[in-house]
Amino acid sequence: MIKFAPLPFSIGQVYLTSDTHYGHKNICSAVSDWDLPERQRCRNFSSIEEMNQAIVDGINNSVGPGDLLIHCGDWSFGGWENIVGFRKKIQCKNIILLQGNHDHQISQQHVRDGYFREFVQIGFYRVEYIRFVCAHYPMSIWHQSHHDVPLFYGHVHSSFENVGKSLDVGIDNIFHINGAYQPVALAQAYEICMSKPTYLESHHQPHTT
């Protein structure tokens, strides 16, 4: 059985985010080259610099230096300079990054250089009594989903609500929930997931292992 790796943090120290897309012009309404109505779904900032600063401020105003930020992928655009530049602006010392479809220029070298605590495709974690799964993409069935283990994912930018006890933790979806482009606390994300029905369309039932 897959084990949930214990993380040495309290529940109040853990935050989740995804799809920051730091430096991505096409996701910023002022500089996007997408046609309407696609551009109307972009982030409403007057410049890419304003968007980038809002992303940094949203993280730094929520997550402390000794806390843990779990980022479910699509970190930044613009190559090595924005990968490292964005990371250096974040005061949190502990970041786990799940690999997103736009993270092809990020590698284990960034972990060895100290920018990230981990860089993985899927994570199975435990913080105190909370077990959870993190990935970039939503899934209909994941490890221990039939035992109410939640899934935190990104990728969809608030355009799709997954089945079961799962939550899009991307900053666009959290903006719709909390009114700010910032990470969501693990406690709040877990509470939201626990309010949803369990999805059991598989060979598993609640009593199975």
From TrEMBL:
It comes from Dyadobacter sandarakinus. InterPro entries: Calcineurin-like_PHP, Metallo-depent_PP-like. Residues 14-156 form the Calcineurin-like phosphoesterase domain. Transmembrane segments: none annotated. Gene3D superfamilies: 3.60.21.10. This is Metallophosphoesterase. Pfam families: Metallophos.
